[in-house]
From TrEMBL:
Chain ranges of the Methyltransferase domain: 63-156
UniProt keywords, alphabetically: Methyltransferase, Transferase
InterPro entries cross-referenced by the UniProt entry: Methyltransf_25, SAM-dependent_MTases_sf
GO biological process: methylation
Name the UniProt record assigns to this protein: Class I SAM-dependent methyltransferase
Gene Ontology molecular functions: methyltransferase activity
Pfam families recorded: Methyltransf_25
SUPFAM superfamilies linked: S-adenosyl-L-methionine-dependent methyltransferases
Lineage: Bacteria, Pseudomonadati, Bacteroidota, Cytophagia, Cytophagales
Amino acid sequence: MASTFDPIGAALLDYVAGHSAATITVHSNVAEDEPLPAKYFFRTLWEMPALERTALDQCRGRVLDLGAGAGAHALELQSRGFQVKAVDVSPGAVQVMQQRGVQEVACHDVFELSTRHDDVRYDTLLMLMNGLGVVGTLEGLEQFLQLAHPLLVPGGQILATSADISYLFEDEDGALVFDLNAPYYGQVEYQMSYQEQTGPTFHWLFADPTIVQDYAEAAGYEVEFVDEDENQQFLVRLTRR
């Protein structure tokens, strides 16, 4: 059934089985369909964007990698001696991470963290590949920031990437045109397909820097924008007060 199909997991499993051309098709309500090669989830350190390499260098202590995919970041951190737990909602992705040697893996979404981790606390929560988007909506961002707070040691950090996609709403003159009656423009609706099967619809949040700062400060975090790139993507550090 479409509601239970795991497109990312199926593609990642095919890739590790030798199907190097495995490619997911990404559908959204803001852009044309785009291909997403499974290979991208298996990139090495020097194939990663600069923002991701910077984030890995900023990690400290015990790390919780959220939305871990095929485990590229978790494996790199393990190789540096970090204790890492990798979490993904995709059962296929979790199976791939286990096959690749990620030592501690769990399958659930980010809103189940507080009931799944008992008394474990982390120094770093890592959310890469526009990873903050996994919260889905502005309400989800508010909920996640509250859930994450007790998971962090005092002074612990969330390292997350996000992007401002307002450029998608520019008219020919460069002015921004938003529907003021619609939800926040950064709340995007997605579906993914693989081999003629389509997964469930889900929401992904592209939170601009102002949104991130406002919501994080309201939830009791100190906010530091660490780096940004030419595509309006940025790396932010949220530190537990």
